[in-house]
Amino acid sequence: MFTERRARSFIDTHVLSRLAGVPLMARRPMQGNVSGRHASPHRGASVEFAEYRKYVPGDDLRRLDWRAYGRSDRFYVKEYEADTNLRACFVLDTSGSMGFGSTGITKIEYARKIAGSLAYLAVQQGDAVGLSCVAQNIVRSLPPKRNAAHLMLLFDALEQAEPKGDTQLATVLHELAETTRQRALIVIISDLFIDPSLLRECFQHLQFRRHDVAVFHLLDPLELSFNFRRPMRFLDMEGGPAVFAEPNEIAERYHKALNLYLDGVKQVVLESGVDYHRTSLAENYEQTLLRFLVGRTRAKGVR
Amino acid sequence: MTFLQPLLLAGLPLVALPLIIHLINQRRFQTLRWGAMMFLLAANRMSRGFAKLRQWLIMLFRMLAIAALIFAVSRPLASGWLGLAAGGRADTTLILLDRSPSMQQRGSGSAASKLETGRQQLVQTLKLLGSSRWVLIESTTNQPRDLESPEALLSLTETEPTSAAADLPSMLQAAHDYIQANKSGHTEVWICSDLRANDWNAESGRWQALRDSFLEFAQGVRFHLLAYSQPAPENLGIRVTEVRRLETSDAAELLVSLKVKREAGDGQNDDVKTIVPIEFLIEGSRSVMNVEFSGREYELKDHRIPIERARKRGWGKVSIPADENPADNDFYFAFSEPAPRHTLIVADDPLAVRPLQLAAAISPNPAVKNLVEIVTPDQVSSVEWEKVGLVLWHSQLPEAEAAKLVESFVGRGGQMLFLPPRDPGSQELFGIRWKQWIESPKELAVDTWRGDQDLLAHTLSGAALPVGQLEVQKYCEIQGELTPLATLGGGVPLMGRVTTNRGGVYFCATTPALADSSLASNGVVLYIVVQRALAAGAEALGNTRQLVAGPAASENSVNWKVEASSDPGYSTEYPFHRGVYSTDDKLLVVNRDAAEDQAPVLGEGRVAELFKGLDFARVDDSAGNLNSLIQEIWRLFLTMMMVAMVVEAGLCLPKVNRVTGAST
């Protein structure tokens, strides 16, 4: 499948082989251009019966249900569900804060693993995958395609993604919602360090455009625990002013602010119904992906 | 605050240790590239109220714990304000003890008087503080006396209560002289007093001089005032104002006038009537009279007490039941047959002194006989001076032997009135000499005279003597220092008094001769002047003498015998203890000073003013206080340290954290 067999740091073949058994499913009907394994809003040629429709002149006579004609003396055409492929569009946050990691792995590396593995699995099952690396704006964009050569390009793009600059995730998500024309699975991989109310508007916009939105919210364990002993000088990875803090003094208020934010995000997620996964960097990404895939299988999209 | 281990206080800078550790910790910060800045910025924006305060409180309690530990191991001695005032070990400790009657006031619910409590407190305090030398200056003699140890304050009779008033400026002067004479090092002066205004004499100009002279000491003198200023508004004091023996045809009786006075108070109880039994003890026979007392003062006039006709002389005592201050609950008096009032007129020309003779011979009281003897200056040595009460000297001033006789007469308390001779002469007596006669072209009137006291004072009813009606044609100038009692126009002294320790010496610039003045024709003034001088002289030389307890009464006290006394003590101290004493053929009655019955106490501000500029600390105590003024208080500091540590630990305890782990 690979034209150029180059090892990628974020691709683990063993993990991929283990995950290959679980299909990547969409939670909503997708509008693909070829046959696939996802539900389509249109009628097609699958084996799954959908409905009877009255015959109209011009319909293919091969699809007439003769048995129905025999019983009712009327012409009915038998229709079947269509199965199509999906467009998976990965939105990778490459802002400066994604370079943080206290467990030996940075958020961007974790994000690469998730995006890379899912892209491979999607292409494997015939879905198209695209990538948007975003920071202040869309840094790099690859349109969704389903061939293997495109997957290589996507891997290259992932490899080259560098955490740099400020986050303007909200603006970028609105832009993506407008520019992605067909229904797609939008997978956002970010630390989501923006105001939850802005996030709500983004999710609602995406869903209005009938996209299936999945979110991997990457958080470092240190960011959650804020477990420091000595006075710290915190340098902003996104270029803001440095903050000097006495951990004993500020920890309580930090946790208060953090909890407020997490509660806000939870509320947004519940209201908008996105497929949200809060992910600690301490967790193995295989587990994260498995949970994601299995969860989607259960919530397989209805037509 | 004073410490038994002051060297350990050198460790006090260790108090800054928590602060230094904090600052070092601050400098050892780590730098970290951080992603979740939005939470940090939000946390910074939040109110840091209690969190910030908590940090400071933790720091404060850590410092407090260290400070308390250092203080505790330094073994502090303290109590109240004294703790802040006491200094290091003194070289000399001077104890100024006020033994005045008001110091015998008892505290409420306690039998201990102010003086007893003060002595106890001083002993305990001075024992703890330590000193190389202890010196007592008590209020009767004002003489410094070395003490072996502070405990001697409890056993010495010189620290017992007396009836004599104290003179704080004199005591301080004695302290000053002692420090100067002995060149003592660091000196602590402890004053134990109840701050009575009459004892402190705060208006006296001596205070300024004392302050200045104490400030001159380079070694440093520290004053501690152990003040017992609590008043006793309900305390009653009794005082006999007059005693007369009256003989009728078949009996004799005493007329006793007295006053019972309530000490100050706020006037709330003025309307409450109480019955006070006044006990009279006269030569062993007792009688009680109940008087209804309301208001502040009760005056009894001429209370008649029959006595044996044969008893010509004796003593008595009035007393009221015990109250807050036992020192003013009794008063002694003595009585005797009035002695004949003997006047000696010394004149060159007996005829010229006829008006004087008349003025002296006519007695205002039929019971008292007035005798007049006229002699020439040459016969002075043959006169019985012991019987004479008043001398009217109308001749040249005496010299040599005669002058000595006159001086000793005045020294015994006799009264003298000098009138100018025709030839003034050049002699000088008591620093006074006659200059020359001045004849005025017209009659001179008396310009001013002292109506408040002395010979020309107003009468008991308040009426002024007709001094202004006198006319003077001729007068003799007086050279020397005297206190004018009356002056003619232009400030020329007409009558004046020379300052003497005892007795009275008066000079009159004119004579009763008709050519000189209207003293004889307008005889009222002359008569009253002579009779008043005679009465004063007779009293001083009479069989009984009323003395005010104090050093002024201490003449020849070793010969005194006790007839009756409340707390006699040693014979050298008789003049300071109220009672009746006899010497030779005289009865001496010693009582407390009238000023002691006055309640005013110096205010805190006034006392501070008196010691302004000096190293001064005041400790207010109350009579009967059993708590020591000073004690070791390391336990208190140790407790403080433990409390500080517990509070610090409580503040450091982290809040129960809600778990904020990762979840899906």
Tally of individual domains of chain A = 2
Taking all Cα atoms into account, the compactness measure Rg of chain A is: 23 Å
Q: Can you tell me the CATH architecture of the largest domain in chain A?
A: 3-Layer(aba) Sandwich
What is the multimeric organization of the chains shown? heterodimer
Helical fraction of chain B equals 10-25%
The SS-based structural class of chain A is alpha/beta
Number of strands of chain B: 30
Integer-rounded radius of gyration of chain B: 36 Å
**Residue-averaged pLDDT of chain A:** 85
CATH superfamily of the largest domain in chain A: von Willebrand factor, type A domain
Biggest sheet strand order of chain A reads 5-4-3-6-7-10
Quote the average pLDDT of chain B: 82
Number of strands of chain A: 10
Q: Report how far apart the termini of chain A are.
A: 32 Å
Low-confidence stretches of chain B: 80-86, 659-664
From the spread of the alpha carbons, the general shape of chain A counts as: elongated
Beta-sheet strand percentage of chain A? Answer: 25-35%
Total DSSP helices of chain A: 9
Largest sheet of chain A: 6 strands, mixed
CATH class of the largest domain in chain A: Alpha Beta
Biggest interface goes to: A-B, 49 and 32 residues
Give an overview in words:
The complex is a heterodimer of chains A (303) and B (664). By secondary structure, chain A is of the alpha/beta class. Chain A has 2 domains: 13-25 and 87-295, von Willebrand factor, type A domain (Rossmann fold), CATH 3.40.50.410; 38-84, no CATH class. Chain A has helices spanning 13-19, 66-72, 107-124, 148-160, 169-179, 196-208, 221-225, 247-272, 285-298, and strands spanning 35-54, 76-84, 87-93, 128-134, 138-145, 185-190, 212-219, 232-236, 243-245, 275-280. In chain A, strand 3, helix 3 and strand 4 form a beta-alpha-beta unit. In chain A, helix 3 (107-124) crosses helix 9 (285-298) and helix 6 packs parallel to helix 8. Chain A is elongated, with a radius of gyration of 23 Å. In chain A, 41% of the residues are buried. Chain B is of the alpha/beta class and 664 residues long. Helix content of chain B is 24%, strand content 30%. In chain B, helix 3 runs antiparallel to helix 14 (634-652), helix 7 (168-182) packs parallel to helix 9 (206-215) and helix 10 (354-361) crosses helix 12 (524-541). Classes of the chains: A alpha/beta (303), B alpha/beta (664). The A-B interface holds A 96-100, 107, 191, 193, 219-221, 223-225, 230-238, 240, 243-246, 248-250, 252-262, 277-280, 282-283, 291 and B 25-26, 28-44, 46, 48, 51-52, 55, 655, 657-658, 660-664.
